[in-house]
Design goal:
The mean pLDDT is about 95. The chain has about 120 residues and is mostly helical. The protein is about 85% helix and about 0% strand. It is globular.
Length: about 120
């Protein structure tokens, strides 16, 4: 699982950098929160988690890690995609997707928390 987390982290990094470049060129800085979340919850968080799983392979070899991976990578794109669309269209109808995505992402992080506390030992 460690390599999957590290590889998907680089995908979020590329997306965030691309969005940042587009924002700079078009001066559309209203998407800064999407850019920041892709960088932090996508690139930074998942890279650190990948390194934790590399350092503690027993934590990467269970269903909690798998569940975390999928929940994180369903929740984050849903949350940020809906937030982007909400800002783009100016309509609040996408707020439900943003909320659902954030709850799914949060559940994934809870699974990571449980996994670390159950499996990481000195």
């Amino acid at each position: 699982m460690a390599s999957k987390f590290l590889k998907i982290a680089t995908v979020y990094f590329v997306l965030a950098i691309f969005l940042g470049i587009v924002m700079g060129i078009t001066k559309a800085f209203q998407y800064a929160s999407v850019h920041a979340h892709l960088n932090l919850a996508g690139w930074v968080t998942l890279a650190i988690i990948g390194l934790i799983y590399r350092a503690y392979p027993q934590a990467a070899q269970n269903k909690l890690a798998t569940w975390h991976f999928w929940l994180h990578n369903i929740g984050l794109p849903l949350m940020q995609g809906c937030l982007f669309l909400m800002i783009l269209t100016g309509t609040e109808s996408f707020v439900v997707g943003t909320i659902i995505g954030s709850l799914v992402l949060g559940l994934g992080i809870v699974f990571f928390f449980i996994n670390v506390w159950k499996t990481v030992r000195d």
